[in-house]
Design a protein that fits this description.
Blueprint: H1 6-12, H2 17-27, H3 43-46, E1 57-60, H4 70-85, E2 89-94, H5 104-116, E3 129-131, H6 136-148, E4 152-155, H7 159-165, H8 183-195, E5 204-207, E6 222-226, E7 240-242, H9 244-254, E8 259-263, H10 270-282, E9 292-296, E10 300-301, H11 308-316, H12 331-337, H13 341-351, E11 359-360, H14 362-376, E12 378-380, E13 382-383, E14 386-391, E15 400-405, E16 415-420, E17 423-427, E18 447-450, E19 455-463, E20 469-476, E21 494-496, E22 499-500, E23 505-512, E24 537-544, E25 556-559, E26 563-567, E27 577-583
Parallel strand pairs: 1-2, 2-3, 8-9, 10-11, 12-25, 14-20, 18-21, 23-27
Antiparallel strand pairs: 4-5, 5-6, 6-7, 13-24, 14-17, 15-16, 17-22, 18-19, 19-20, 23-24, 25-26, 26-27
Helix pairs in contact: 1-2, 9-10, 13-14
This protein binds adenosine-5'-triphosphate (ATP) and magnesium ion (MG).
Adenosine-5'-triphosphate binds next to helix 4, strand 8 and helix 11.
């Protein structure tokens, strides 16, 4: 049987096509002679090294120009996940070849994010954390080698002229009048570019491929430009910088990457990727096997934006409190919101890896979190919209312990005690003066169970001048305590939660809603900013059961009947701040 083409594999394994490709590559022993010296470098650097012990090498190559978002998490799970599954290595590479907008602050955050998701760039004794800016010298040499082999030239057309002469999808481009300069002339001009003799934009180095190519990316793409800018790592050492499309394949090759996985926008760049690496192999700077690029569909998530540039705008224009605002789809925001690495993993497993661009419903992400948090979180009680409940026949000084399981499906997590007293806090919604149909909770004359406590009979209520109920009165039935023989003697349909007003702990809770009002921000409006939901944050004061008095940042619980919550980093001894991660059910309208 003939080996499967990439096309066949895509069709057979739509949700897993990259694994299909790797399986086939390994079966064909594609890397059995691949040498790796333990650090990135050219052909000569690896020539005498041992065979690479990593069965495959992938990389996650963020540009440190912003904080990572949930889309990046998909790429992290994919690249690091493949390396883990195939006994390979995944490199963390900062793609910092663009001197502007890059910053060490972002580098540190990205390192944290990758670790938080549970991955490491270590393989055996290798560190595998790299900066593309460390390869500037090699990239420069690669450019020189292309000039010498007649595959690159310095173009002095204006940016405008270059654009005009590039042609269109339906018409061929025109050769630059500078295209046929001699190698010597190109070398000396490129030297002058590097030496800083020319201002930004005065000239560019271009690959010499084919101005008539149907693929516009092959019409002599620019590979080096002049930019008198300081770089966050290399300082003022360079005033010429490689273009991304030139730098990226070289970075992959130097690091011995086998599978260079990127998003679909780069599909049309693949021919240039292959052209460039092959030229550098012929020029003996690189050795086979050369890396190959594979593209997958980027994650688009409804009700948020996944683009660093837009997320920067949200922060700078103060639509949110910062990068780690829990409404932000950044990984720092997600963490502060209470989304967990396990939940993100489940989410990315569910959406799969395919070639088809699509929008994923935000609910899919929330459902994944619910599923993971349901098993990982202990239960606690919190009253979010408190009104008083007074048990008139319960003595003022009396109090007793009620026992509540920490997890209803996992007895091994034990029970906690909650104190019952005469005065309690209950939810405003658990009482109605005039019950509507099928309302089984408190109303005058009705009986409900106080969860883990007694059955009570509602006897009356009090309200303020505006008619808002302030206090509800009831009497308890002494033989009906949960966990005792008499518990089942009275049947009730309603079961409400409560906390003792004597022992309750007040806290501030942030309730989050969608950051944008529409599924695809900006699709139908002039700007995505017009679609921001200005009611995406509501802050309330709540009453917590006494066991939450010592809650610490990052502690997560299910608040019974409400959802999943996490203690915020701004919590202090006298002010507890809690964020709602997700409600128990989807109630978005
Ligand atoms: P942005 O458009 O948000 O700035 P980017 O693609 O420019 O994203 P990079 O730092 O270049 O950001 O991305 C690092 C890696 O993450 C790339 O390999 C890229 O393909 C991947 N990536 C970025 N966004 C997504 C996404 N929405 N879904 C899947 N992968 C993504
Ligand atoms: Mg980018």
């Amino acid at each position: 049987m003939a080996p499967m083409s990439d096309r066949d594999i895509k069709e057979v394994l739509p949700s897993n096509f990259i694994r299909g490709i790797i399986d086939r590559n390994l079966n064909e022993n594609l890397y059995q002679n691949k040498r790796w010296s333990g650090s990135p470098g050219t052909a000569s650097h690896h020539a005498d090294a041992a065979i690479d012990r990593a069965k495959i090498r992938t990389r996650f190559p963020p540009e440190p120009n912003g904080y990572l978002h949930i889309g990046h998490a998909k790429s992290i799970f994919l690249n690091f996940g493949l390396a883990r599954d195939y006994e390979g290595a995944c490199h963390l590479r900062f793609d910092d070849t663009n001197p502007e907008k890059e910053d060490e602050e972002y580098v540190l955050s990205i390192v944290d994010n990758v670790k938080w998701l549970g991955f490491s760039w270590k393989f055996k004794n290798e560190e595998n954390l790299y900066y593309a800016s460390n390869y500037f010298t090699f990239m420069y040499e690669a450019a020189l080698s292309l000039i010498k082999s007649g595959d690159a030239y310095v173009d002095q057309q204006t940016a405008e002229e270059i654009r005009e002469n590039r042609g269109t999808l339906t018409s061929e481009g025109k050769n630059s009048p500078f295209r046929d300069r001699s190698v010597e002339e190109n070398l000396s001009l490129f030297e002058a570019m590097k030496a800083g003799h020319h201002p930004d934009g005065a000239m560019v180095l271009r690959a010499k491929i084919d101005m008539a190519s149907p693929n516009i990316n092959l019409r002599d793409p620019a590979i080096y430009r002049i930019k008198h800018a300081e770089h966050h790592r290399t300082g003022k050492e360079w005033c010429i910088y490689p273009m991304y499309t030139f730098a990226h394949p070289i970075e992959d090759a130097l690091e011995g990457i086998t599978h260079s996985i990127c998003t679909l926008e780069f599909e049309d760049q693949r021919p240039f990727y292959d052209w460039l690496l092959l030229k550098l192999e012929v020029n003996q700077l690189l050795a086979a096997p050369l890396p190959k690029q594979y593209e997958f569909a980027r994650l688009n998530l409804t009700y948020v934006v996944l683009s660093k540039r837009r997320l920067i705008e949200l922060v700078e224009n103060r639509y949110v409190s910062g990068w780690d605002d829990p409404r932000m789809p950044t990984l720092v925001g997600a963490k502060r919101r209470g989304y967990t690495p396990e939940g993100l993993k489940l989410f990315t497993d569910r959406i799969g890896v395919s070639k088809a661009d699509s929008w994923i419903d935000y609910v899919t992400l929330e459902d994944s979190m619910r599923e993971v948090l349901n098993s990982s979180c202990d239960r606690r009680v919190a009253v979010l919209d408190p009104i008083k409940l007074v048990i008139s026949n319960y003595p003022v000084e009396q109090e007793e312990e009620c026992f509540a399981p920490n997890h209803p499906q996992d007895e091994s997590r034990g029970k906690r005690t909650i104190k019952l007293t005469r005065e309690l806090w209950i939810e405003r919604q658990d009482f109605m003066i005039e019950p509507e149909k099928k309302y089984f909770r408190l109303y005058p004359g009705n009986q409900v169970r106080l969860r883990y406590g007694y059955v009570v009979n509602c006897t009356g209520y009090e309200s303020d001048e505006q008619g808002n109920v302030t206090t509800v009165f009831c009497e308890y039935l002494p033989d009906t305590k949960s966990g005792t023989a008499g518990a089942d003697s009275v049947k009730v349909k309603g079961n409400i939660h409560w906390v003792s007003s004597k022992y309750a702990v007040p806290a501030q809770v942030n309730l989050y809603d969608r950051l944008f009002k529409v599924e695809q921000p900006g699709l139908k409006s002039a700007s995505y900013l017009d679609d921001i939901n200005d009611k995406s944050l509501t802050t309330i004061t709540v009453q917590l059961e006494e066991n939450l008095a010592g809650i610490k940042p990052m502690d997560q619980f299910q608040f019974e009947r409400h959802g999943y919550f996490i203690c915020d980093q701004e919590t202090s001894t006298d002010n507890i701040v809690i964020n709602r991660t997700v409600t128990l059910r989807d109630n978005w309208k």
